[in-house]
Amino acid sequence: MTVTLNNILIVEDDFYIRDLYVRELERAKYMVRTADSVKQGLEEIKKQKPNLIMLDIMLPIRSGLELLEEVKKDKNLADIKIVILSNLGEDDIIKQGFAKGADGYLIKSSHTPKQVLVEIERYLTK
After folding, report:
1. Contact in structure between 113 and 85 (CB atoms under 8 Å)
2. In this structure, are residues 98 and 105 in contact, taking their beta carbons and an 8 Å threshold?
3. First and final CA of the chain: distance in angstroms?
4. Buried/exposed code over 79-93 (b: 16+ C-beta within 10 A; e: otherwise)
5. Given its phi and psi angles, is residue 61 left (phi above 0), alpha (psi -120 to 50 degrees) or beta?
6. Residues with Cβ < 8 Å from 1, sequence gap 6 or more?
7. For residues 119 and 108, is the Cβ–Cβ distance under 8 A?
8. Element at 85 (helix H, strand E)
9. Backbone angles phi, psi at 80, to 5 degrees
10. Which parts of the chain register pLDDT below 50?
11. Each residue of 34-48: pLDDT tens digit?
12. Residue whose C-alpha is closest to residue 2's, from 50, 42, 39, 38
């Protein structure tokens, strides 16, 4: 498993949202890969370990929280920074995300793509 500097995986099932963030991150010179499900996300992580995962919670079949839990339980992957990017803003869901190991939690509707980029850069430099 190789690691490329500034390699970001976006796990998001909505094509338009995923594409929006891909364009913003690529413009900022990040290497971006995408997945639209937990299963595909895990496959992408195993192909090439990302520096950071932008993770939606509401995904088909399995929740993004399940992917978060699987990654953080694997000692070879636990150091990957994971930022949840969701429209679910209820306190109990946010607490669950942090309890399972999320490094950050951003509400999509509260952040422009440029603001998300600033936050991602902050998490990558921590």
Report:
1. no
2. yes
3. 23
4. ebbbbbbbebeeeee
5. left
6. 46, 47, 48, 49, 76
7. no
8. strand 81-86
9. -65, 130
10. 1-4
11. 999 999 999 999 999
12. 50
CB 10 within 8 A of CB 32: yes
Pick the CATH number of 7-125 from 3.30.70.60, 3.30.450.20, 3.40.50.2300, 3.30.1240.10: 3.40.50.2300
Read off the tokens for 71.
């990654």
Give residue 3's pLDDT: 41
Residue 90 main-chain phi, psi, to 5 deg: -70, 140
The residue ranges of every structural domain in the chain are 7-125
- Say how far apart CA 66 and CA 106 lie, in whole Å: 18
